[in-house]
Amino acid sequence: MKSSLIACLLLSVLSVEITLNNAITTQALEKLKESSWASFIVEFAEVELSTGGALSELIETINQLIEQLQEELQDIHNKYSRRTDEHNRDVTRLEQEIQDAAKDIFTGQDFIDNVLIPQKERFQQSLVQLKINIEENRRVLDGEIVNRKRQHEQFLSNIAELNEAIGAVDESLGLLSQISNPSLIQFKRVQTNLGRIQTSFQNRSSFAPIIKALLELATEQNFTDQGSVQQLVKIFNELRVQFVDSLNQETADESQAETKYTERVAQLEKEFAEFQRSVLIKNSELAANEQKLGETIVYVGQRKDDKETLEAQLQAENDNYAAETDLYTRTVTEYNKEIDISKQAYGLLTQPSFESYVRSTVGI
Q: Could you tell me the pTM of the whole model?
């Protein structure tokens, strides 16, 4: 840029006032001489005119300078306009990407806080409850097994007692059927059998009346009486029928208890299998939940990093554009100043009074 020329022009314009439509006064000439740029123009004009030249070349040079400065200024405007468009596009894009990142962060964190974590807690609670259910199921099964074992042992004991009682009754009946001349030995044998029966079934109310009747009849005196003996036989037979009925009932009850036990065990095993299947499902769901939770946490972290990077880029872009705008403003101001000075110099040189002044000075 023609900085030296423009600087001289600026000094001239700021220190000299020339009226374009009037002759140069003595005062104006004196003031013109105070300017180094004006002195340069006068000296240059004296040389040109004294050698038969003209000021047209100097005027043309200044005019070309003005056009060049204006073209350069327009190019600066155009570049800044393109830079502004680019800046606006970048800012719009970065702000949109920042908004997208913020939305992703909010959505991801909301998904973590309100879906994945509560879901994980529900799965864990379900597993705890299933563990309790399984333990309770096994406890009940163990109880059923123990109870069934106790019931069966009681059944075997009852069957043994009934069989023993039936055997005692049968033996007593056999002894009573053989009586023709009752002996003390037979009496004692029947008494012993009744004692065994009483001992075994003293707590069974259903047998108590018959056993009591037998004991009342089974005295030595009644034993020698044929009528009493026949009554003993009758009561023994009734007792035997009750023992057999009890034996059959015990067997039926045992069969029913075994069936009920088998069904109950099958039910408990089915429940246990269902609990186990539910545990597998919940563990699978929990594993999937934890994987999704981990992936979402990583994703949210990545989007936070993205947002910070984008915000830094936006800040850098704004800072760069602000610096470029400041440079643009200062450059445009300088160019406008140079153009204005050049135009004033051009106006000075094209005044007829200026050329007359120079000619008069050199004596042409």
A: 0.64
